[in-house]
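HUMAN:
Sorry, I am quite new to this. Are you able to go through these amino acid letters and fold codes? The numbers rather puzzle me.
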Amino acid sequence: MRIAALAALVATTTMLTPLMAQAPAPTAPAAPAAAAAATPAAGDAAAGERVFAQCRACHQVGETARNVVGPQLNGLFGRKAGSVAGFNYSPAFKTPAVAEKVWSPENFAVYIRNPREVTPGTRMVFAGIRSDTQIADLTAYLRQFAADGKRTP
């Protein structure tokens, strides 16, 4: 019985080997979703204002924005992380690796997805935004605010 099973296996393998040799080479997998998320799509600023409602308990934007539980977010993109005057950042934001980071839409998208994973030890308790669309919308909303809090078109 074992010899018959082994013979059948050898016969099957012998028949399949030429077919496998003729099979087309596998194609490369598509780029992972994380890579797509690294470059956020253009978002809707009006929708982003609604997404910002999740942030409003701790952060402010606009001409009257001030630091509260978190720093004000005017002029966020292009600014060094942990650099808002008058805000007492957690030690995690004072490390050289974080303090040298300059906020961009790309690294903000990664950060806001899971702040505590990206910056271990941060006092920011926000769980994160998982939706690429909401992140793009929030980014579009925040990009409207210059460092002085004035909205730019």
